[in-house]
Write a structure and sequence with these properties.
- The chain has 182 residues and is α/β, with parallel strands linked by helices.
- It has a single domain (3-178), classed as Rossmann fold (3-Layer(aba) Sandwich), CATH 3.40.50.
- The protein contains six helices and eleven strands.
- The strands form three sheets. Strands 5-2-1-6-7-11-10 form a seven-stranded mixed β-sheet, with helices on both faces. Strands 3-4 form a two-stranded antiparallel ribbon.
- Helix 5 runs antiparallel to helix 6.
- The longest helix is centred in the first third of the chain and has 13 residues, at 14-26.
- It is globular, with a radius of gyration of 15 Å.
């Protein structure tokens, strides 16, 4: 079974994080929500508080196939300034494991030099912060082991792309049909 870790920082974009968790679980993909703060309760950018399953320090990331960074502000800033997050993201990318980021969060990957030559998408206002990548403007796109999404309105596209990458286009199609996604 594929295992995914969704990292939550205070100020995360709720739609982007929870759509991923919900749809991947519908696809029977194991998802662990992980707080990068010192407590299990993490507050999103629109005041929705979520209780995570684990704290960052409790997780053995070697057990996971994918790490997901939701966007939102200041969530993205908090993810990018966390040394453990930067280390794990770089380790995943360099070892060929999947790294996924949506909205503003692809800037964290760019800051680590992980997007050079990759076809990516992100929130339009963040495009100027993406270095060396080919910006596609797509709702969601996978290029090798990097998966990116544009923003909250593309959260379903992003989650379905993650399912396709992890379990195939047929499974992504089944989930899209089950939620009446057109």
């Amino acid at each position: 079974m594929k295992k995914v870790s969704v990292l939550l920082a205070n100020g995360f974009e709720e739609i982007e994080a929870l759509t991923v968790v919900d749809l991947l679980r519908r696809a029977r993909i194991y998802v662990d929500t992980v707080s990068i703060a010192d407590e299990y309760m993490v507050c999103g950018s629109h005041g929705i508080t979520v209780q995570t399953e684990d704290l960052f320090e409790e997780v053995n990331f070697a057990e996971f196939d994918m790490i997901v960074l939701p966007g939102g502000l200041p969530g993205t800033t908090n993810l990018g300034s966390h040394s453990g997050v930067r280390r794990v993201v770089k380790d995943f990318a360099e070892s060929g494991k999947y790294v996924a980021a949506i909205c503003a969060a692809p800037t964290v990957l760019s800051d680590l030099g992980l997007l050079k030559g990759k076809r990516v998408t992100c929130y339009p206002d963040m495009e100027k912060k993406i270095q060396g990548a080919v910006l596609t403007g797509a709702p969601a796109i996978a290029d090798g082991n990097i998966v990116t999404g544009q923003g909250a309105g593309a959260a379903v596209d992003f989650a379905l792309e993650l399912i396709a990458v992890l379990d195939g286009a047929e499974k992504a199609g089944e989930i899209a049909e089950a939620i009446i996604y057109h």
